[in-house]
Amino acid sequence: MKIVFLIHNVYGIGGTIRTTLNLASALADHHEVTIVSMLRHRTKPRFTIDKRVTLLPLVDHRKDAADKADPRSRQPAEAFPSAEKRHGQYSRLTDLRAEEYLRTCDADVIIGTRPGINVYLARFAPREALRIAQEHLTHDTHGKRLRGQLAQHYRALDAVITTTEADATAYRTRMRLPGVHIQAIANSVPEPDVPATLGGANVIAAAGRLVPSKRFDLLIEAFAKVAAERPDWALRIYGTGADKERLQELIDDRGLVGRATLMGATARIEAEFAQASIVASASDAESFGMTLVEAMRCGVPVVSTDCPLGPAEIVRDRVDGRLVPVGDSEALAAALLDLIDDEATRRRMGDAARAASRRFDPVPIARSYDDLFTELAGTRRSRAWLRRRGWLRARIGPFARRLLPSPRR
User: Fold this and answer.
1) 2-184 and 203-360: identical CATH topology
2) Residue 169, CB half-sphere, CA atoms under 13 Å: how many?
3) Distance CA 212, CA 223 (A)
4) What span, in angstroms and rounded, lies between the C-alpha atoms of 224 and 254?
5) What is this structure's pTM?
6) What is d(CA 375, CA 395) in angstroms, rounded to the nearest whole number?
7) Which residue from 57, 181, 52, 54 is spatially nearest to 107, judged by alpha carbons?
8) Of 154, 285, 297, 343, which one's alpha carbon is 20 to 30 angstroms from that of 137?
9) Is it the case that residue 353 has pLDDT exceeding 90?
10) What is the enclosing helix (H) or strand (E) of 132?
11) pLDDT in the model for residue 405
12) Residue 338: what are its φ and ψ, rounded to 5°?
């Protein structure tokens, strides 16, 4: 079977890139897999790509690339939804390259990995292919205008896959998509190629984009309370983003220079987590929680805010980590101090975290996708009927709806 992933920019660093590469590699055990990167800004990807996986960039944004001189690269995108936050990075050239590729694609399955790309998938992909939209954000983090644009196009898809059951429920109840299969399949995280932590280093680690929703400011505030009581502990934050300067100012203001450090981005976060005793997350919202799973796979207990939607589906409170209320720096600091002061509990939770994290291994996740492909292929006719029936129901009066026949397989 030929499987194609459509991704924003595989040459960067981010959770969607990591999980796409993990899944592509696992599926390559039994399928022919291609990753199509809408954009390219560097010569080589930051992450290692399985040699069995084909990589195809569509629009080259490197400094001396011919695409930079193409006048269409300076025209705004028309097919990419205007309400999508990446719209400014797309152009008429991106639209045309995506359409050209998809209209001639002979893949059996095409998987999109962000909302705007999923619109490309719905508009241009051949009807013979299974068209699957992955949601690496969440339904509720999309603005009302974008949700309206997505609903218009998502009706043409075969499936929408979320990373949590809570988000799948949101799509089922808030976006009417007759004939579209909606299912939660977790992101996959492979066994790290580093030894499990021994839990002896006095280090708390965290990772993610340095943006307001990740609440690294809250984590720094909580760590200030920790540092006052346990001055031999350090906080290391990995990632880049627009909040870097503000977070550094907060570190300076709280007198934490040399104790709390912004470490920058890394393509090998597991190696950094394995050197920590605790991994923390203070997010207001998460679509999944890749860093939590990555830490657990290294045998590191996590302390996370119990935010929508992912952490509660990953962490079992007081078994393999701790969950604390959103926005509560006192509770976050208290949970960190509890684990700092109880090495035996840290080790027990770390062992439990490592065992629990095996459910995110790429092999069973890939098997879930294989089962999905089989299910979608077997229900094409019934789902097509549901789609047509939904279209008719939206256009006829309520008195005539009861006359519509039931769907058939």
Assistant:
1) yes
2) 5
3) 17
4) 7
5) 0.88
6) 29
7) 54
8) 297
9) yes
10) strand 130-135
11) 58
12) -55, -45
Among residues 185, 164, 190, 163, which one has the least CA distance to residue 358?
190
Provide the residue type at 397 as one letter. Answer: G
Residue pLDDT, tens place only, 278-309 = 999 999 988 888 999 999 999 999 999 999 88
Q: How far apart are alpha carbons 60 and 109 in whole angstroms?
A: 25
Give pLDDT, residue 274.
93
Q: Which of 3.90.1150.10, 3.40.50.2000, 3.60.10.10, 3.40.50.80 would CATH assign to domain 203-360?
A: 3.40.50.2000
pLDDT tens, position by position, 25-66: 999 999 999 999 999 999 999 999 999 999 999 999 999 999
CA 154 to chain centre: 19
Q: Which has the closest alpha carbon to 198: 270, 271, 275?
A: 275
Q: Where are the domains of the chain?
A: 2-184, 203-360
Amino acid type, 249: E
* CA neighbor of 20 nearest in space, from 43, 32, 4: 4
Q: Which amino acid is at 302?
A: V
Read off the tokens for 392: 């008719």
Q: How far apart are CA 342 and CA 316, in angstroms?
A: 18
Q: What is the spatial distance between Cα 146 and Cα 108, in angstroms, rounded to a whole number?
A: 28
